[in-house]
Amino acid sequence: xxxxxxxxxxxxxxxxxxxxxxxxxxxxxxxxxxxxxxxxxxxxxxxxxxxxxxxxxxxxxxxxxxxxxxxxxxxxxxxxxxxxxxxxxxxxxxxxxxxxxxxxxxxxxxxxxxxxxxxxxxxxxxxxxxxxxxxxxxxxxxxxxxxxxxxxxxxxxxxxxxxxxxxxxxxxxxxxxxxxxxxxxxxxxxxxxxxxxxxxxxxxxxxxxxxxxxxxxxxxxxxxxxxxxxxxxxxxxxxxxxxxxxxxxxxxxxxxxxxxxxxxxxxxxxxxxxxxxxxxxxxxxxxxxxxxxxxxxxxxxxxxxxxxxxxxxxxxxxxxxxxxxxxxxxxxxxxxxxxxxxxxxxxxxxxxxxxxxxxxxxxxxxxxxxxxxxxxxxxxxxxxxxxxxxxxxxxxxxxxxxxxxxxxxxxxxxxxxxxxxxxxxxxxxxxxxxxxxxxxxxxxxxxxxxxxxxxxxxxxxxxxxxxxxxxxxxxxxxxxxxxxxxxxxxxxxxxxxxxxxxxxxxxxxxxxxxxxxxxxxxxxxxxxxxxxxxxxxxxxxxxxxxxxxxxxxxxxxxxxxxxxxxxxxxxxxxxxxxxxxxxxxxxxxxxxxxxx
Amino acid sequence: xxxxxxxxxxxxxxxxxxxxxxxxxxxxxxxxxxxxxxxxxxxxxxxxxxxxxxxxxxxxxxxxxxxxxxxxxxxxxxxxxxxxxxxxxxxxxxxxxxxxxxxxxxxxxxxxxxxxxxxxxxxxxxxxxxxxxxxxxxxxxxxxxxxxxxxxxxxxxxxxxxxxxxxxxxxxxxxxxxxxxxxxxxxxxxxxxxxxxxxxxxxxxxxxxxxxxxxxxxxxxxxxxxxxxxxxxxxxxxxxxxxxxxxxxxxxxxxxxxxxxxxxxxxxxxxxxxxxxxxxxxxxxx
Lengths: 596, 286
Hints:
The structure holds 2 protein chains of 2 kinds. Helix content of chain A is 53%, strand content 12%. Chain A contains 21 helices and 11 strands.
């Protein structure tokens, strides 16, 4: 929840800004310029062409470029330039037809199949499989022999063959949108299916549909050129492929004939492909997103002083964090998520780090572990662990420490176990790799650990895959893994937030028992005051990247000094029950006994 | 006043099993309770207890496979499509996740007018109503032209509440409406729920896993466990002196934000665990 890096936070705008962003994109700008010129030429071809593209002039057969025929003449004595201009119109129209058919068929069928499922879904999947397995060129040749050489029919059929591309993309997006709560909300607002599709679902498939367009047009143009080049096209419609075909027969007599259509064809397809890349970058926010910070990092504003209850017991400090600052590069300089973290964890103590979302508590934990998400950097301050400075250590050095002396328990147990390996494999691997144990010994150790964390049948858990475990069991497995190396410090990031309360109580019991047995220090990051009250000896309150109050748990709970801590305590449900409804006798109350 | 607004009688919800001969999955197994006008009924339970499914069955989003739902004297277990759409005027919902319950591509105003589109409200009227709704949930009027991403979780949840209120419903299903929110935001949103109830007399079915929140919000509480109601009655009684062993476990497992009280509660819980384990043992031996 709070582990999302703030670098990803700036919202992307879509809609009106897209065109401008595309122009500014280096690939997008150039490719759009090329395409604009090609489209303009195609559109104005009838007026631009100096000659009738099919008028032959015997004097100009295979003529060199000259004042009359600017690009020369072809084998039949026609003006290459005029033919090229008109061919541009036809080729583009062919590509657009492919796209139009593919979008119409793929989008509608994908929408319907994705939204309603059932029979239409099955039919769609069947049709997709059929078109994918049929070689389109053979079908096109067969269609040609039935319907004659018509470019429009050929392109329309090819569009049908390419429509599964759209069908699949639309189908998957619709499937995922269908489960969004806002679609349910629309339904409970009384909107009919047509309205829901029009308002919510179409919006979601807009981006992928646009994204695929340029690629599909390019494929259509390429297919058509190939088809015509093989001589299967309609000889009466000049297209790039048609020109290539004719030029190829005479390539030994004049290379001019092949050069121009090949050049325009190549440029257009490359531009379309690059435009697709630029579109993807802009629509999906991929591509090069490394910000070069405009200005060097600096801490803005004063860091408020930490209210220390001054009741720290005499004991050796295991972990000392001093004035730690963590920042992420942002569009304008840096976003500082932790401004001045100050924290001391002594040997054997359980320390709670509490704060609301965005307070920087998880970032602090990640900074201590040296596991900040990409882009995040410790900008200032120090982390001292058992007398050694951790800030500035290499990954390899940290790795040695993390596996053995500092352990980590994450918030989401399920997403931190690899679904493709058994629990046993995941538990023994670090024992073998990091601690250098023998396989047999590691297995024995893992089994005893599983028993220790209260798993009733260790052997069965050892052999199972993560999906066969419940959330509470998975968290126990992760705790077993974390304590397997007898760490000095266990950092637990919201270890019970994803669990039910009854399971939470058991996991907290487990952590308490393990601590008593192993004598390790625990740093618990949480937003739950109940968890702190239950397990923590000391607590530090964090607000907006700064530690505001620290002290023994009882002292802080009984006499919170900082304004923010007081506000947090005031927000806790007081447990005052509601008065019964006026005018209603407390009737019909059914005790537990009546149900059994 | 004593006439219930909604009566749920032996409700069953079963999802078809996956595969040819798989048994259907019974998410709700014969649940009965009722809600009176202007009342809040809390449904409390852990994950997989079926509490959300009951809410979805009321909204027509989960298949009712048995039992009846009676709303204002009318059987709404299997309404026609037309009738279901009309019912949305009376029964509304606020979901848990304020992030996915608003379409990110629509402005707040567009999301709020959604329920009015179907009712063919004029544009002018709809605009006025949106301003009224935003005011009701204490959001600035200019919020209508902004997108969900510009708002925090708590503010989004206010928008979701405003949308639920758009048609003046008599019952709102609140499905964990505050569990995704920070503590301080949570308190303010809960207050808003109470304030709206006082002002409009709407009834709530308040679904939550948090006993403390349910206790503060509900007149009566039902405790769900594996698709069945194990305890049902006056909110104060159920949440402070429960009779059923599961409710007792649930109550003692919720940590109290007070170290001394929590130490006591932990000791009580461990004692209860021993007693219940012993009882189970005896029951097994008998």
